[in-house]
Each structure stands twice: as C-alpha cells, then as structure tokens.
Amino acid sequence: MAPTRERTPRVRPTGQVEINSQAELTELIGEPLQRTANKARPTLHALDRDWLAAAPFCLIATADAQGHCDVSPKGDPPGFTLVLDDTTIAVPDRPGNRRVDGFHNILTNPQVGLIYLVPGRGDTLRINGRARLVSDAPFFDDMIVKGNRPRVAMIVDVEEVFYHCSKAFLRSQLWKPETWNPESIASRPRIAQALERPEDSLAELEAYYGPTYAEKMYG
C-alpha cells in the first residue's frame, strides 16, 4: 500500500510576487524559438537508441491521481533500458527499499517522464509517455544482471522524445571532479542514523554502507 500523503497548509511569506497565468509567465520568460518548441518527436531515432545503449542512469518522474509527485533514480549497466520498438521501451526494477512510490503512482496515473544521463555529457535525452507495469515477459531474460532477473518492469509507450541542452551541467560543473566535495555534507551512515535508523549505532551503519554494500545490490 502506498504511503499516505497529506497536504499541509502553508503560510506564504510576504514579499513574493506570484505568477498565476500563462500570459504572465510568457511575458517574463519570452516565447521559445520555433526549433525548440517543435523539437519533440513521437518515435525513437537511431541516435536515441545509441544514447539509451550508452546510458547507465535515468530519473523517472511520476505523479499519483491527486498530483503528488515522485522522482526516482534508476541505474544499471549501460543499456539497461531495452528498446522494444520505435515507440516502446522497458526499464527493469531492482531490489531496493520496496517503497516503489513511482510504481504506485503509475497504477493510478500512467503518465511518466524520464531523463537519461551519460557520464561526461551535458546534454540529456528526455522521454515522456504512458507507463504500465508487467511481472513477466520474454524480454526479462535480457534484463538479467549478476543473476538478478527483475520481478517487475516498467514499459513506456513513448509519446515525446527530445534532447535537452547542457546549460544546467555547465552551470553546475557536475562532471568536473575538481569541483566535487562529498565530505562537505554528512555521510550516508550519519544521515541514516539521524533520520531513518536512530536505533542503530553509527558503527553498525558504517559497516552496512561499507565496502560490502555494493555486493548486495542485486541480492
């Protein structure tokens, strides 16, 4: 059963100027260039297939019937997303925390959005469509990784495909190791102890998230 989500009334701070219409937004941002507005395609191109074959990571956005949103990361060896045909792709599920928020959403609202990343590339491939869940299919045998055959896969009927430019990655310098500073924030064990597993000691969590953690990903 999906977790209960309730909207908490918020008091908006003063001094904010809200945008409440399409006209206001367009006045501020401007109209997109025609080539940008019309770049979405309804089918996969050979170049899109190449990108999916090279991509080891994607983000999947969903929303339930009430509009509560979720974005879930998915990662596997490059090519983990199977192209079934020019308008259909399939994404395997792997062992995790079993919340499967996105899957719960799909059962009430099939619209999904995916962004595929290739390490080192600033541009991204975006796919929008309608998703459905399957518990078995002949192509599941092509999704086996380290002996793990998925129990669920998400099939997406493609509606829109297009590439997004690299400005966000250039601004963030995401792929530049010299800008990385992972030690500036709390470690995963410390976050888990503070917010998720306060009953466990830090030593236990450091052992859990230690070198053997990667060995349990497909178990």
Structure description:
It is a single chain. With 219 residues, the protein is α+β, with helices and mostly antiparallel strands. It has helices spanning 22-29, 34-37, 46-54, 101-108, 167-172, 188-195, 202-208, and strands spanning 57-63, 69-75, 82-85, 88-92, 111-117, 124-134, 153-164. It has a 7-stranded antiparallel beta sheet with strand order 2-1-5-6-7-4-3, covered by helices on one side. Helix 6 (188-195) packs across helix 7 (202-208). The longest helix has 9 residues, at 46-54. It is globular, with a radius of gyration of 20 Å.
Radius of gyration from CA coordinates: 20 Å
Any idea what the shape is? globular
Give the total of beta strands. Answer: 7
Biggest β-sheet strands, sense, barrel: 7 strands, antiparallel
Write down the overall mean pLDDT: 94
Count of individual helical segments: 7
Distance between the termini: 23 Å
Helix content: 10-25%
As laid out across the biggest beta sheet, the strand order is 2-1-5-6-7-4-3
Q: pLDDT below 50 for ≥5 consecutive residues: which ranges?
A: none
Taken as a percent bin, the fraction of beta residues is 15-25%
What structural class results from the helix and strand content?
alpha+beta
| SSE string, helices as H and strands as E | HHHEEEEHEEEHHH
